[in-house]
Amino acid sequence: MPETIEWNAPDGGVEGMQKAKAVLLSLWDGDEKSALRIDLWTKKMMVDEMNDFFYQTFFGMADTFARATNNKELAESIKEFAKKFHKQAAETLSKEA
Length: 97
Description:
The chain is an alpha+beta fold. It has helices spanning 47-69, 72-96; strands spanning 5-9, 14-20, 22-29, 34-41. The protein folds into 2 domains: 1-43, no CATH class; 46-97. It contains 2 helices and 4 strands, in the order ββββαα. Helix 1 runs antiparallel to helix 2. It is globular. The chain starts with a strand and ends with a helix.
């Protein structure tokens, strides 16, 4: 588990190193028809932050899916799942507190 994660994107207008607590990277291998992933998070990433990170990532994936496939109905299903996930994650976290 990394202590820190830093990134920059000077071509995208992000100058200097930026700090992050987590990163999810997915790649599609068209030849193998399989997804490859690199998932990293720091020791400082709190559970509530991870819950929010996944919720926002699901929403972003839904938007990307809608743009890529024009299947707005299925994209909306992903968003509904994200909302249910976020609610359930918050409830679980409050029970553990």
